[in-house]
Every structure is written in C-alpha cells, then in structure tokens.
Amino acid sequence: MEIDDLGIKPDILSDEYELFKPMLDRSVVGLLPELLRGIRLADSMDDKIMDKILADKVEFLDLRKRLDELSYDNIVFIAADAVGASHLGDMGGLLADNMLSDGLVASTVFPSMTATVMTSLTYGKFPSKHGLLGYNIYNEHIDGIWNALSLKYLDGENEKLITDTLSMDQLVAGKPIIDDLLEVNFPVSFISSDYVKSPGLLDVINPSFEPSLYGEVEDGAKQIVHELNKPDKNRLIAFYYPYSDHYGHIYGPESEAYEKSIRGVEHIVHQLLEHPKVKDGSTAIVVTADHGQSQIDQDISRYMDWNRWQHHRDNGVTLSSSGRVLHAYSNGDEKGKDLLEKLADGRGLVIDNECAMELAGGNLEFKQRMGDYVMIMEDGYLHDVPEIVKFDEGDERLNGQHGSLTKQELFVPVGIFYK
C-alpha cells in the first residue's frame, strides 16, 4: 500500500533511497501515554494522578482526538512485533480495515528495531532521551558493544550479562510507565510469549514483576480474557505477540507464513470483541506494532565475515548493526564514513551522528552511543556484519529484516476497537 493510501504525509529523508523521516508528532511512543490520559479513573484514584505520571511523556494529538470520543475503564494494549502498515494494508482483513477507519497509521522510531521501539513504547520517550539507540549498540560504561535483546557483551573473550556489570539507569534513562502505575496501585498485567527469554529485553521494559507467559495463540487469548474477568474498575493489560516478527525474519514479509502469523492477532481480537467488558464499552482494545519489515533480496545483499570485521576494527572502525542500519564508531575520523559508503554500494544513505540523533528524537545526551556515522539501507538491501554477541545460535540468512526508514518498516498500524 502506498503512502497516500495510508493517510499520512511524512517528510522525505532521501528520494534516491526512498527513505522517510520518523513523524515525531505521530509516533507510537505516544500511544500508551495517550491511552492512559483518556482512561476513566475509579473514584478511589486521584483524578490528577495520570497528569503527574505522564507530564514528561510524548504526546500524540491525532490519537487523542480519536480517544476523546471514547469513555473506557480498561485498556487491552496488544503490541504485535513487525506488522508494517503497508504490508497490512495489502493483506486486508480486520486489522487493515480498522487501521483505515476507526484507527490510524503511526510512525515508529529510529532505528526501527524491537529493543529501541519497545523501550520507547514502555518509557514514553524517544530513543535519544532514554538512550537505548539500537540492537548491537555502544555503551560508554563498558566501552564496548552490547546486545540489547540478550543483554550480553564481551569482556575479553568471555560473554557477560551487562546487568551484572551495570545498573539499569546506565543502560536506559528513566523508568517504564508500568512502574509509575504500580506505585499508585493501578492494576497492570503483562502477558508475553514463552518464546521470549529472560534475561533479556523484557527485563528492561518490565523490570518490576514477572510477566505471565503463553505458548499457543489460543492460550494467549485465554490469558487476556482471564485478566479482563477480574473485578478491578481500572486495568491495563499489555500483551506482546512476537510471531509475526519471527516468521517475517525466516520467510520474509511477503510470505504466506508471515500473513498467517498476523491472522493470529486478528483471531485474538475477534475473541475479545465478544467479551462483556468490550461489548458494554468499558474496555478499549488497541493493536499496534513496533515496526514493519523489508523483504530481503539475497542476490544483492552482502554478509561480512568475522575476519573482515576484525580487519576494519584493527584499522580504527568498529562496526555494529541495528538490522538494516550500520553504526560506525571511528572516534570522529571520516574513515568510518568512507567505509560505510563503500559498504552501502549505492544502496544506502550515510549520515553523520548529529543527523542520526535528530532522527532518533533530537536529544544529544547519548550521542556517543549512536556511532560517528550511520548507514540506512534502501528497501531489499542488507549488508550484515557479525554480532559481537549473538542473540541466538542460528546462522540462517534472514529473508525479512528491519531497522531502516522505508515505508515498509517505519509506518505501523494503530487499531482502535471500541463499542
């Protein structure tokens, strides 16, 4: 589906590579704050409490206008991994129809990686403010690269958990909105797939309590229903669905397996629409995604081996990847820029640190984490570099990837289901 069909008018970053700038005033980062601003609080709750919690959080005024028409006590917030608005629109179905009618299209953040976006979603802040700026990313406290999904880094030749070395606020600035809610006794439930392991990203976005885990999609739906059946006047039920990302990586976002995984989210929504607390208008269901995916063309893509990566580091440039974004750390030397332009091979835009930080929200406090230069790839292209600490043991080449700023990756659905 084309940009005009999605009802948005983003600024162009590069005509040549068909890249867009994140829409900071229409960002998924503002979803949870706006949903909580619109909730109808129980009499026992201080009616000013949400104003205090959300005072410094990102706003999403177009969404606020939609929510002002609703009156709800409970929120079911479904975050489906890697469901891009353009691919969803081409697929059609319940989520696509809602996105283009009662819902809307939002922008994700830069880089469009799960670790960066989910942290932004749960903290209500842009990446440049909270400091988790990618997937394999530099941290000044270890003077090295760490993996934001596994939370591991290399100390010499030994893998270590970064949380055994650093405090959470040395990784991410601030705290999740969920923590603020718990402090005022606002009921929160967090349900995640048992596919997602701990220690890992979950410990960053939800450090205060163990999530409920589900296996099959049907089990996940039952757990949401179980939480909705509780008698609390107010409740936030957060649900994470990783399978669309998993099958998109393996088979690509143009595959039947990817589409089938998204139909699993629709199946859950269909069931929830029959719940009494949804039918009576006391519960709003919101479905969104952290990013989309690009279908990788293996004929043009490149994969750097470990020896070549080490060669570049020995020559003063350390490379790390946030999916289809490469970071070059070169102590300010333009050799990082020269190397990225060579690796781009005419298929990616190379920008400097200041431009990259502007795309990530504009704050410069954590600029040393981003890289001196950054390469953002056009649709279909991947120049992958070795991960210093691998997230898993698989060596298969991915047929779907994200991180860049194409329409396929940057724009995501916001489904609003309310009766």
Task: Characterise the protein shown here.
- This protein has 419 residues and is α/β, with parallel strands linked by helices.
- The protein has a domain at 4-131 and 169-294 and 407-417: Alkaline Phosphatase, subunit A (3-Layer(aba) Sandwich), CATH 3.40.720.
- 32% of the residues lie in helices and 21% in strands.
- The chain is built from 18 helices and 21 strands.
- Strands 4-21-12-3-11-9-10 form a 7-stranded mixed sheet, with helices on both faces. It has a 4-stranded antiparallel sheet with strand order 5-6-7-8.
- It is globular, with a radius of gyration of 21 Å.
Per CATH, which architecture of one domain?
3-Layer(aba) Sandwich
Count of separate DSSP helical elements: 18
Poorly predicted residue ranges: none
Report mean pLDDT, rounded to a whole number.
95
The top level CATH class name of one domain: Alpha Beta
What would you give as the CATH superfamily of one domain? Answer: Alkaline Phosphatase, subunit A
Number of strands: 21
Structural class: alpha/beta
Q: Strands across the major sheet, in which order?
A: 4-21-12-3-11-9-10
Q: Indicate the proportion of strand residues.
A: 15-25%
Terminal residue distance: 28 Å
Into which percent range does the helicity of residues fall?
Answer: 25-40%
The 3D shape can be described as globular
Give the biggest sheet.
7 strands, mixed
- How many whole angstroms does the radius of gyration measure? 21 Å
Q: What name does the CATH topology of one domain carry? A: Alkaline Phosphatase, subunit A
